[in-house]
């Protein structure tokens, strides 16, 4: 089965679509996984972008606060720490853009003093509702580790591969969707995302998204430019 351990795929511990599993390398730490093994033993060696269909399946397995949290993380394309600070400062969103001040830009040696984050039409709508949903909720201050565990468990329930799925995946997912739909707007995407090197976006141009994937992306990214 294309190098995939069939016993792993068919295990009763969880159900994963083998067609999704074979797209990603199987970490050695995953071999022999059982329900008695703590979920944090699943080590994520890489971060991967999600297909729109995968995210749809994933969010169905999340509670309301989880859907709101990760929807916002996705459509802002922020680094996770930036996003958590943004949730504490809704005034940074003016209805059209997010004005991220220098104090929120947490990347080491970042040279950008502030940046304006562009939003899609759906992104603007999502930001209107996440603040009341997430106000004073524990998830707004959760650690990367606890959120990664939440995502892994949701992935098992959804039947999608948990490999490479973590809080960093949402930024990578958003960038890959934007570059796929707006390949001629790399400079604008680069500035909105706060990258320091244009090459950080180039590898997204060759990702093997299907036409169905791109059709579903449009629902999320339309209106970004």
Strand order within the widest beta sheet: 1-2
Q: Proportion of β residues?
A: under 5%
Helix content: 40-55%
CATH architecture: Orthogonal Bundle
So what's the overall shape? globular
CATH superfamily: Intergrase catalytic core
- Whole-number radius of gyration? 18 Å
What structural category arises from helix and sheet content? mainly alpha
**Number of separate structural domains:** 1
Helix/strand order: HHHHHEEHHHHHH
Report the uncertain regions: 1-45
CATH topology: hpI Integrase, Chain A
Number of helices: 11
The chain-level mean pLDDT equals 78
- The CATH first-level class comes to Mainly Alpha
- Distance N terminus to C terminus? 42 Å
Report the strand count: 2
């Amino acid at each position: 089965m294309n190098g995939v351990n069939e016993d792993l795929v068919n295990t009763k511990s969880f159900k994963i679509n083998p067609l999704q599993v074979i797209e990603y390398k199987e970490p050695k730490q995953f071999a022999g996984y059982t329900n008695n093994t703590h979920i944090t033993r699943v080590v994520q060696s890489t971060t991967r972008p999600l297909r729109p269909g995968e995210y749809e399946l994933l969010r169905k397995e999340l509670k309301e606060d989880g859907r709101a949290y990760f929807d916002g993380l996705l459509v802002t394309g922020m680094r996770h720490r930036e996003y958590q600070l943004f949730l504490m400062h809704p005034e940074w969103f003016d209805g059209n853009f997010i004005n991220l001040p220098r104090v929120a830009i947490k990347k080491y040696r970042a040279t950008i003093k502030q940046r304006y984050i562009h939003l899609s039409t759906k992104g603007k709508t999502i930001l209107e509702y996440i603040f009341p949903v997430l106000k004073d909720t524990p998830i707004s201050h959760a650690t990367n580790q606890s959120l990664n565990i939440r995502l892994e468990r949701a992935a098992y329930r959804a039947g999608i591969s948990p490999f490479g799925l973590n809080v960093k995946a949402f930024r990578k997912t958003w960038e890959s969707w934007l570059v796929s739909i707006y390949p001629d707007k790399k400079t604008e995407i680069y500035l909105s995302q706060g990258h320091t090197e244009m090459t950080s976006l180039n590898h997204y141009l060759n990702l093997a998204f299907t036409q169905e994937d791109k059709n579903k992306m449009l629902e999320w990214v339309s209106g970004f430019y």
